[in-house]
Amino acid sequence: MIPRKIREEIEKLRREILRLDKLYYEEDKPAVPDSAYDGLLAKLKALEEKYPESRAPESPTQRVGGRPSAAFKPVRHAVAMLSLDNAFSEAELREWEERLRRFLRREVPIHYLIEPKIDGLSCALTFEKGVLVAAATRGDGETGEDVTANVLAIKSVPKRLKAGFPEVLEVRGEIFLRVEDFERINAEAAAAGDEPFVNARNCAAGSLRQKDPAVTARRRLRFFAHSYGIWRGAVQAEGRAPSGPSGDVSARRGAGVPETQRDFLRRLESMGLAVPEPVWGASTIEEAAAVYRDFKTRILPKLGYAADGIVVKVDSFKLRAELGETAQSPRCALAVKYPAEAVKTKLLDVEFSVGRSGVVTPVAKLKPVFCSGVTVSSATLHNFDEIRRLGLKIGDTVWLERAGEVIPHVVGTAKEERTGSERPIVEPKSCPSCGGPLSREEGFVALRCDNPACPAQLKRRLLHFASRPGMDIRGLGEAVVDGLVDSGRVKDAADIYGLSIGDLLEIPLFKDKKARNLVGEIAESKSRPLARLLFALGIPHVGEKAAGILAEHLSLEELARAKPEDLASIPEIGDVMSRAAVDYFRAPGVLSLVPRLKAAGLDFKRMRRPAGAKPLAGKTFVFTGGLRSLSREEAESRVKTLGAKAVASVSRKTSYVVAGEDPGSKLDRAKALGVPVLGEKEFLELAK
């Protein structure tokens, strides 16, 4: 038992440290010198070490405690984290409102709440009984990364909420950096001789994905909450609230759920969470358009963090429930960004890059120029049709844009600035890597190297094979792959598994420890499940999700022998993917690769579902509208437990559509496609 006096001292220290954190990180008002703060934290650590039973997840000491994670585990979101639709003009904003009114099919006043569009990293934080228990990135919307240890290291994130929280709250928002913190990090990197980050968003993302939470803690990341995924139960009042996807769409509302977005943000603030600021109300879409005009010139320069526009949200949660969502986005919210910033720079040269499928892509080498928050020195030109369309020549002055995209692209040529010294861009006649012939398939614009032994293709394939979502062979990076291929030691993925420490030591990059580590990583990768291997092989059109589906239905040998019709019968595997997979396994290089990978000891076994009765195995369900007896995530969890899949959109392969109160357009599509529709009572009977 901890003596009462000690227990009170621990709680007092925790409260004081959390108070100082709030002043420093949220209000920019440091109250004590760093040395005094460090002394308080050291005292708390000493007490918790002496009385280990006193440790709690919300303690300030747990932000950087524990062993750093070796990798980030995948986390399946209980409710999909959807992305917002984008607009880039006032006209598109008005068109969005027209779509809302057509969908509602009646005249009703729509009030809006407007928030800054933060240029950060989406993250979901789960609180149970007010205590932060989990954090995950958005990932692909269905599955994210477990970053709980690192979020616990962010001092501006409360580890325990104040009064008024529901029993379970999954709150969603943005992880970001203030401009001053971003500049500090880059200054420190420059002083250490490291390469600086190109923008604050990338810096925030890299900081959150650190293997050591202590590094995350030093970066001073912030979190603004703007929506929720789950809001269930209440700590101080009875009643259960539903869950809703990002954008706050809910099938129905229960006790304690705010009525509007404005009230929701106030509620979050009262719990101790930071929310976007400033926010604006608008009674009409024209008032929202006025905020859009004003924000860039008057508000954005004073924000102190990166934002690329505004988010306009329907304020009423009741209207949001009526509006629902598409497969990708909630209808109730729109990100209105600013038109792309176009800058001029010189096209110094064009190089040709060979991808893992053999496609040859022209890449513009540019005079470095700052554009929309990043310094750009190269940009893809896609293909020679695009070069001809733009009329490009080497030496041209070109216009560059990043219109809401990560990858910059050349959008025009300033032909009036030509001096006569410009040179034409000549289409290559042979592969820039292996010297082999290039071909252009009829109906396609891309040039392709058809040599399967092309070194550039091989290097790209090996990097993909060793990537984190693939076989996750740490240490097998670009420089190592270059050395292995150029030395002739590796000619395909199977050769990786025959490498010895002696082989690696003959490459200048390696010393004994590094060679031993890589051989160990290669050996460990043999235990990766079939889904990871299928993704790593780089089968055309087969991404991570499709690889997982295929691995649940077929072993690798069965897949290699399968016919297109065999694969097309699997839910969510279409005709294009089926044909691509069959063609892939018929290729001569793959025919010899598969048995060698098996001989190396890789896992070819079908990924069996967990043992137990699975009466709905192979079925797919789509839910629309609200159910009276259980929430959306509870219904989806039930069918998954019984072996079925819960998907977002209706297709001919959907087994059942479950229609609750106020169903959306998914019901109409189900009827049009002849998909069976279940009411709530029928669904509960089926999913016992």
Q: Could you please describe the fold and organization of this structure?
A:
With 688 residues, the chain is α+β, with helices and mostly antiparallel strands. The protein has six domains: 4-55, Helix Hairpins, CATH 1.10.287.610; 85-337, DNA ligase/mRNA capping enzyme (D-amino Acid Aminotransferase, Chain A, domain 1, 2-Layer Sandwich), CATH 3.30.470.30; 343-424, Beta Barrel (OB fold (Dihydrolipoamide Acetyltransferase, E2P)), CATH 2.40.50.140; 455-525, Orthogonal Bundle (DNA polymerase, domain 1), CATH 1.10.150; 530-599, 5' to 3' exonuclease, C-terminal subdomain (DNA polymerase, domain 1), CATH 1.10.150.20; 620-686, Rossmann fold (3-Layer(aba) Sandwich), CATH 3.40.50. Helices cover 37% and strands 19% of the residues. It contains 25 helices and 24 strands. The strands form six sheets. Strands 12, 13, 14, 16, 17, 19 and 20 form a seven-stranded antiparallel sheet that branches. A five-stranded mixed sheet has the order 2-11-10-3-9. Strands 5-4-7-8 form a four-stranded antiparallel sheet. Helix 1 (4-26) runs antiparallel to helix 2 (34-50) and helix 3 (90-104) crosses helix 9 (285-303). It is globular, with a radius of gyration of 28 Å.
Can I get a quick summary?
With 688 residues, the chain is of the alpha+beta class. The chain is built from 25 helices and 24 strands.
CATH C-level class of the largest domain is: Alpha Beta
What do we call the CATH homologous superfamily of the largest domain?
DNA ligase/mRNA capping enzyme
Q: What does the largest sheet look like? A: 7 strands, antiparallel
Structural class: alpha+beta
- Number of beta-strand segments: 24
User: So, CATH architecture of the largest domain?
Assistant: 2-Layer Sandwich
